[in-house]
Amino acid sequence: MYTPSIIAEAVVNGLLTGAVYALVALGLTLVYGVLHIINFAHGALLTCAMFAVWALSDGLGLNVYLTIPPLAVLFLCLGYGLQRWVIGPASHGDDGNTLLVTLGLSIAIENGLLAAFHADTRTLSGDAAFDVVELGPMLLSRPRLIGFGVAVLVAVLLWALLAGTDAGKAIRAVAKEKMGASLAGIDVRHIYALTFGLGCACLAVAAGLLMPTFYVNPRVGNAFVLVAFTIVVLGGMGSVPGALLGGLLIGVVESLGGLFLGESLGQAGIFVLFILVLLLRPAGLFGARA
Amino acid sequence: MLEVRNLVAGYGEVEVIRGLSLTVAAGQIVAVLGANGVGKTTLNKTLSGLLPVGAGEIHFDGARIDTASPSEIVARGLIHVPEGRKIFPNMNVRENLELGSYRRAKPRRAGNLERVFSIFPRLRERAGQYAGSLSGGEQQMLAIGRGMMAEPRLLILDEPSLGLSPLLVEEMFALIARLNAEGQAILLVEQNVVQSLDIAGTAYILENGACALSGPAAELAANPALRRAYLGL
Ligand SMILES: Nc1ncnc2c1ncn2[C@@H]1O[C@H](COP(=O)(O)OP(=O)(O)OP(=O)(O)O)[C@@H](O)[C@H]1O
Ligand SMILES: [Mg+2]
Fold it and tell me: What SS3 state is found at A263?
């Protein structure tokens, strides 16, 4: 019953979903790689972004993909401000405090959303989710294809920023050598905030790509961040290519797991893979070995 | 050009610099010497804004900089090449040098890069290599080159000869003298007392976080007390 074309379709679908997972993981791994903290507010911020997409798209009637550019800019600024004026000052340079501050922030955001929107689950109206494209023998979901394309585009843009601009080079410099960066005249607090902002901008894009096929409720971000965290560890903490490949891999494993074990057990495959990688390559696929 | 008055600084409650005064004039090499742990690196970190000033004043080019941020101090041209190099190991040689002009002299980046490459031909050969995989001597060249990319008005060198072979130490001092001959003001922190006094105009000997002895380097080199304490003569 598992004909090659069914398996191929599952693999391709996995890649499409995985690219969006990778985007969520990219934000997480970027912040970890530069600030050396795990941002516990990542999930809550993703939820915020998804509500924002829903509000602009269903409330104001904007095309869902047109909500992405303004929300990406908004979340860049929001993330910048959060790190620069809330998380940074509140943690007094202590990483343990930063964890608590981001955790506190996530609780505050989640409860704020619960108060505003209640626990209801919302989806975009319209039937974009059932829009399919025929590709040879495969039937693929159009929103997922678009999601894949946009996620790859964002990854390329991010890579170009990190490799080719002074701001990107400063981000890489701060990631590994804070004191040397300060002495080169790089304002470390600015770079921290910029990195956090870029992480949030990734979430805004991911939200715009998820909403056409997914739903939003005040806790929805957590599920994605659990997967994203797995991807980050899998790819190597702080590694950008690791997050991208890890995301695609997880997408495929989840999709094949769903095919062979049934929809509800699909995610079990992720954790089996996770444990295998940790046993065989503890630093992750792309992580520097200790 | 740099004037430090009664500086007090350290780490939180721990005072390391206790009332130090020091002057560097334009075009000069000033050597700062002293035993391990006396506070030379602490002084440099305070001058470049990495550590807060507890009391006293730092004037640079006529402006007070004791509350300025590290990046403002870099913008003014006070450039600190730190002990232990602190280069960016995950980036290649060229990118390291480019970041030297992140805050200052950016419009002249290409020309300055050429100048650094002609002073350190080894860096040109290794332009694409990751800085973390350079030898210790090459890393030191890179750290100095990165500092020069900002067109320093005053260059602070913290133990530039640390960990270099005797031959490279000679080369390093020759290079410092040559930069100075081209007009570069330098604040030189060193363990190699003889060679430092040889190229410096003025020297300060630190003890207990303050200046125990200072004066023209040639005079200090002949001072019997100093010769006993530092040279074992
Ligand atoms: N981060 C720090 N926190 C607390 N104390 C410190 C710190 N860094 C240095 N010290 C202390 O400050 C004193 C001066 O250290 P500093 O590094 O300035 O000495 P130094 O003169 O540069 O020595 P060396 O010649 O060995 O480089 C030392 O007693 C050192 O233990
Ligand atoms: Mg020192």
Answer: helix
Q: Touching check for B119 and chain A: CB below 8 Å? A: no
ipTM: 0.94
Q: How far does CA B224 lie from the centroid of its chain?
A: 27
Asked if A94 is an interface residue toward chain B (Cβ–Cβ < 8 A), one would say no
Burial A44-78 (b: 16+ CB within 10 A, else e): bbbbbbbbbbbebbbeeeeebbebbeebbebbbeb
Ligand 1 pocket residue status of B39, Cβ below 6 Å: yes
For the stretch A226-244, pLDDT in tens is 889 889 988 888 888 889 9
Domain ranges in chain A?
A: 25-220
The protein residue whose alpha carbon is closest to atom 19 in ligand 1 is B37
Q: Which residues hold their Cβ within 5 A of ligand 2, which is an ion?
A: B 40-41, 83
Minimum CA distance residue for ligand 1 atom 26: B36
Q: Give tens-digit pLDDT for B89-148.
A: 999 999 999 999 999 999 999 999 999 999 999 999 999 999 999 999 999 999 999 999
What is the best residue among B38, B196, B211 to mutate for testing ligand 1's pocket, by most ligand atoms within 8 Å of CB?
B38
Structure tokens at A63: 């095309």
